[in-house]
Amino acid sequence: MSVAKKSPAAASDTQSFAQRIASLETIVRSMETGELPLEAALTAYAEGMQLLQACQGALQQAEQTVVILNQQQQLVPFDPE
User: What is the pLDDT of residues 43-68, one digit of tens each?
Assistant: First the structure.
């Protein structure tokens, strides 16, 4: 089973957040089977860690954007009515 077709860094640079999460889920599922040879498992783990870091960075950036928007009072409270 081939987990990565291009380098992990290149993959995380070109993928959207949702694509990164989907790739990370695929890696986790493949590793959970226990059928990957050691070398492939290590490669998958390294790719997963890079994807995780990219996702965490995107979430931190989104959080900072929300904080800035709140400070600038550009967000309005949600009114369900």
Answer: 999 999 999 999 999 999 999 888 88
Instruction: Assess contact for 31 and 51: CB atoms under 8 A.
Output: no
The pLDDT tens digits for 20-35 are: 999 999 999 999 999 9
* Domain coordinates in residue numbering, the chain: 8-71
Whether 29 and 48 have beta carbons less than 8 Å apart is answered as: no
What CA–CA distance (Å, rounded) separates 37 from 74?
52
Fold designation for 8-71: Helix Hairpins (1.10.287)
Residue 50 tokens, joined: 């890079």
Q: How far is residue 30 from each of residues 5, 21, 41, measured CA to CA in Å?
A: 15, 14, 9
CA distance 47 to 22: 13
